[in-house]
Amino acid sequence: MARLERGIGCADTRDKTRQQVVSLIRSAGQIARIDIAAETGVSPATITAITQEMIQAGLVEEVAPGTGRPASGRGRPRVSLKLRGDAHLLAGIKVSFRTLSVVLVDFEGTSVAEHVAPLSAPRVSPEALAVEIRALLAAATAEIGQTVDDISGLGVGLAGTIDAIAGFVHWSPSLTASNVALRDLLEAALPMPVFLDNDANLVAKAEQLFGEARGVRDFIVVTIEQGVGMGIVIDGEVYRGTRGCGAEFGHTKVHLDGALCRCGQRGCLEAYVADYALLREADVSMPGEAGSSAEDRLNRLFLAARAGEPTAHSITHRAARMFAMGLANLVNIFDPRLLILSGERMSHDFLYSDEVLAAIRDEVVQVDAPPPEVKIHKWGDQMWAKGAAAYAMEGVTDLAVRRLAIDA
Amino acid sequence: MARLERGIGCADTRDKTRQQVVSLIRSAGQIARIDIAAETGVSPATITAITQEMIQAGLVEEVAPGTGRPASGRGRPRVSLKLRGDAHLLAGIKVSFRTLSVVLVDFEGTSVAEHVAPLSAPRVSPEALAVEIRALLAAATAEIGQTVDDISGLGVGLAGTIDAIAGFVHWSPSLTASNVALRDLLEAALPMPVFLDNDANLVAKAEQLFGEARGVRDFIVVTIEQGVGMGIVIDGEVYRGTRGCGAEFGHTKVHLDGALCRCGQRGCLEAYVADYALLREADVSMPGEAGSSAEDRLNRLFLAARAGEPTAHSITHRAARMFAMGLANLVNIFDPRLLILSGERMSHDFLYSDEVLAAIRDEVVQVDAPPPEVKIHKWGDQMWAKGAAAYAMEGVTDLAVRRLAIDA
Amino acid sequence: MARLERGIGCADTRDKTRQQVVSLIRSAGQIARIDIAAETGVSPATITAITQEMIQAGLVEEVAPGTGRPASGRGRPRVSLKLRGDAHLLAGIKVSFRTLSVVLVDFEGTSVAEHVAPLSAPRVSPEALAVEIRALLAAATAEIGQTVDDISGLGVGLAGTIDAIAGFVHWSPSLTASNVALRDLLEAALPMPVFLDNDANLVAKAEQLFGEARGVRDFIVVTIEQGVGMGIVIDGEVYRGTRGCGAEFGHTKVHLDGALCRCGQRGCLEAYVADYALLREADVSMPGEAGSSAEDRLNRLFLAARAGEPTAHSITHRAARMFAMGLANLVNIFDPRLLILSGERMSHDFLYSDEVLAAIRDEVVQVDAPPPEVKIHKWGDQMWAKGAAAYAMEGVTDLAVRRLAIDA
Amino acid sequence: MARLERGIGCADTRDKTRQQVVSLIRSAGQIARIDIAAETGVSPATITAITQEMIQAGLVEEVAPGTGRPASGRGRPRVSLKLRGDAHLLAGIKVSFRTLSVVLVDFEGTSVAEHVAPLSAPRVSPEALAVEIRALLAAATAEIGQTVDDISGLGVGLAGTIDAIAGFVHWSPSLTASNVALRDLLEAALPMPVFLDNDANLVAKAEQLFGEARGVRDFIVVTIEQGVGMGIVIDGEVYRGTRGCGAEFGHTKVHLDGALCRCGQRGCLEAYVADYALLREADVSMPGEAGSSAEDRLNRLFLAARAGEPTAHSITHRAARMFAMGLANLVNIFDPRLLILSGERMSHDFLYSDEVLAAIRDEVVQVDAPPPEVKIHKWGDQMWAKGAAAYAMEGVTDLAVRRLAIDA
């Protein structure tokens, strides 16, 4: 498939309507034209014109309603529209501490392949990352008899301070370099458009599309991995801040002149709850065998804490209290409908404990109305990757719709 | 003028277009129909129909472009539209610790009367507040030869936890009662629709409409009065949270197990920077004459701090450090384009000091991009009242537009 | 009785032996000369000479052993020595927040009169204090048919920073003036020698002589009244520091940049546990009726805390945690055999709670040896006064023994 | 020389006088009998008898006054007494993190040999320590043509919680085992009596005998090495606490729920100022090359801090503030005449800075009297070892004097 070109120009009103239509079809699964007109407030005539373009472009197809199969042509009024799954193949990649995870999805959002590969080092150069991503995409597409060139769009999520609009990485714990125009660099090395974002924002997107936040307009996702991430969704949109530097929950200060963070500042939440913060306490007071890995030492800490060893418990307990205080601050500022604590590792149970939930309730502003729901959602890197794929799907749809407009 | 009725039904697409048109005319001052069509993306025919309704309803009038006066009828292409100032008289009231301030504005937003009256007590019953508000409106309208019945809408801002959409006061330091349906109560006592909001949100609105935030889509206003307030504007809209309980900046926690707040929780920012927090430290360590007022004692504190008295300086210095830490947290979460520190009192200079601004810069996430601009805007209760009037103007426009739709 | 003169010269070795003998007789009640020689390591001949002087001076008398009555003269080996109770009448006064308490004791330490009088104000001038003390002594002696002139020595304990050796008050919460040579001032106004000390040191003396610390050489007494006091006994002697400014437990810092103390510094223990510290939190978060007394408001706080009211409990709980931390620090520095928590008021139960005791155990250096015993001793001002009387008894004995030496 | 036996029985009065006489001769250098009688208050006849015993036992010899040489026998009135340097050879050992340092002194206190050897590991077994000490003593005595058997007594100082009276090590960072009867173990392995103490107490003794505290009765020494140590001298005697667990300055708490200490508790001073505390902050925020030694990384930190690097400065600055707070607490409790900050390493300058001294002054109780003098004394392990030798000298004198008593 010919590469979709970015930057054709600004979306006009008709573009917005087209995007709205695709989005509506995707969330509905299948839907009749008349219902599309009703939901969007656009005239049925316009909807008919727009969807005709989409069918011709191969993005959309007609189905007999209720069957999920392409319409046989009989019974016009019962004809609905659905997305054509094979219209585009999309990839989502999550860059983790030690691994790359990829998910391939079709244009309907159905997962068609998943793959995980070790990352050559915890921190790599941007160029090396591009090479490793290309190899991973090659391996994943090979599983389904396709090639990297068949992918219409790639979403990439990584930790750090990332300006998603500009495709620019201010800083990432996964990269050896700072201030990298990573999207351009990846697009130069790969045959498809690339959509880059902070990984927590992609978790937010995944939660919104196929997780705990379906149907919720205002919610916050907090993620725990090596550090603490946050995705904010306001009125259905991921909130990104002005410079792409917002949602830095891990670096909100919870103690004046407090513990030193790896960012060089004092009192950051991460300096109390991130893995390195737990380890520097554990290493001093519960010295393990020299040379054992950080992961092993963390696991020993968690086991000891669960077994009631006082020092280990003191370490996880203080982290939990600080975490609760930070979460309560988010609720006090945003008053969201829903707060999702999202993480892959069962080991961090202490951060999702009843104690934390109770502390949040105690520290939010007390009114005669129920506090926000707090949901705990444990999942793995594949779900992060799926969020990245969803992000790519949005981006590709946007590009495809703009091309429709040009061709129209 | 007949009372505009609330709750006629949900706005449909055409309503939204009408509101958009009024809003565009208001911000432009005057504007030709063809420019309205271009800016809104709505067809010129529709714009012509909509504005005709408005002219007939007396909301809008034609002017000769560039003159600001009603059009003489010659030279059709040069005819523009403007709002009719005398279409509606609107009132905005700010409920302060000891005073009520009112501003009357016409439908163009021009101030036509201002008035201040002492409040009978720092905390009053909702019923008493209604009586005092009515008396104030009577006095203010009398100045311009009108009566309370001539007011089309009233905006009221007060401190506290307020659900603006529901018109409900969870809690306010100005009221003796909690959980009050204050909007309904005021509307029962007054002849016009009432629009109620947290006062800091109204400052945000005022900053947006005629203050430091004109043209800025994402900004935060932090206000200092008796307590600490915050208004968040995201993508041009005041963000209110799910239960109307968001933006509780004063109750974000800055210290685990810290100083006790009057809300009953520990470590709230207010427990370090609010007047009561400063006073409880000053009263213990620098005892003044018994019986002197809180205001006098605060002023003595501020004078002593400025004169370099060590204990007084220690009090204001710690408040400043905590305040900076709280503000840095806001920047770390929102990454706004602009942060406005807004307050009426020169005495709180230490909270707007270079030291605070430097501390914010040191405590935000460091990237190779300039941090948000921080502006300091000192103003008085009249500006808060003007924000309340602007809020009423929006509400009245909304109601008027809906009536057009019904009449249409 | 002729006034005993101070400052006759330094004690020589023989003086020390005489003091040792009196002290031994007092603690034994009655004791044979041969046992005195054995206990002191002084030759029986010297003991016989010394005690003969004392009998002639009227300080000591012979008793038939086991009877407690003066010896009849028969059965020389059975003769013991005891102090002559009527040798001296001694007074001890405790200056409290609102009251003066006096105890009169005879030279054996038996209480012969007690009296309490209101103090004219919480803080008085040194001159006024002298007048009130004289009146109180007059009233107390009148009860037993004696006069102020019959008192051989007066011990006075008051809170503050006091150089006991110099009889100098650096600062006291009971006095309107600072830097007062209070002992000289009282001696000029009264007919007997005066022995002045910090009240907590006198509690330590009382505990040592007739309280919980009998027979213990190394212990610490911590007192809770308006503020926090401490008396340190090392090797049987009250430790006073170089300038009389030691044992300022209440002003040890428990938090960097912490709560403001009335001394003007930050983070002092008193700023978390003293009455004023509890009240400034209670007044903000649980406002009572204006104008009620501090005592009433404190009592309401304590009742509410005991009833489980969360904010009240938060106030006393934090005070208790800080108190435990301060006490653990004392143990970590001194490793005393015994720690006595001594206070008059049942209301401060939360500071003597099992929670505090457990926290101390958790925060002292852990070794395979039992931690110091912690005893809780609740008593009233009369016991403080008795400590003051004991202090006077020591001082008078010292003067009397020196006179013996001169006369010898 | 025959081994001096410990535990012959309690000292009686005459023993105490003999010890007093030796001590007086040692501090005077040389002194006439008549002056000894005057200073001790003991009769000249007794002094003559006692010193005759000592001359016969070889501890003391006569000198012509002013010459320092043995008296020629002429001019009786001019004859003084001095200690016989060759009466006993004494050894002092300091166990450091990586080295053993020894000083050999004669009975007059003159250093006759010094030696340093690497320790086989930072932590060794008690048995291994005995072997390494014996080897070191053999090497040091060989230098002066003597053997281990010629040493009359050995003082050993090591860090940790040590009951000096019982010769028992509760815990030491230098030993792999806890709860060790180390004195008995060393005496079983060596031919001389051993005197064991906490190293900071030996520094206190060294300061008192030949350092900054000569002639001061009440002072505190704080030492900085791997951790923080303290020696307290009250009325001329090292204060040891009841269980030998006092003076644990490094484990006084300076922050409730603060940083985790290697002792397993939170908020200990050491958790902010000890090497490991500085390193765990430096390692997280200023990662150095993997595999470099702790010492190298510390040095890099100190250099960076001195060069003004913000994160490094933040690390040392916070340590300095906490250290000052801890020191102010010591002054507030003890009010000593003198506070000595004693350490070997120039690198810890930030703990002895003007900033720290100013902070101490600001945080002690303010009275109209000068605060304690603070002296900074930088020295090396040899001085610690000399303190250990002085301790051995005291112990050997004690044993020698008791033998005199038995022989008498």
Protein model, in words:
- The structure is a homotetramer of 408-residue chains.
- Chain A is α/β, with parallel strands linked by helices.
- The first copy, chain A, contains 12 helices and 14 strands.
- Chain A has a 5-stranded mixed beta sheet with strand order 5-4-3-6-9. The first copy, chain A, has a 5-stranded mixed beta sheet with strand order 12-11-10-13-14, covered by helices on one side. In chain A, strands 1-2 form a two-stranded antiparallel sheet.
- In chain A, strand 4 and strand 5 form a beta hairpin.
- In chain A, helix 9 packs across helix 10.
- The longest helix of chain A has 27 residues.
- The radius of gyration of chain A is 23 Å and the shape is globular.
- About 1% of the residues of chain A have low confidence.
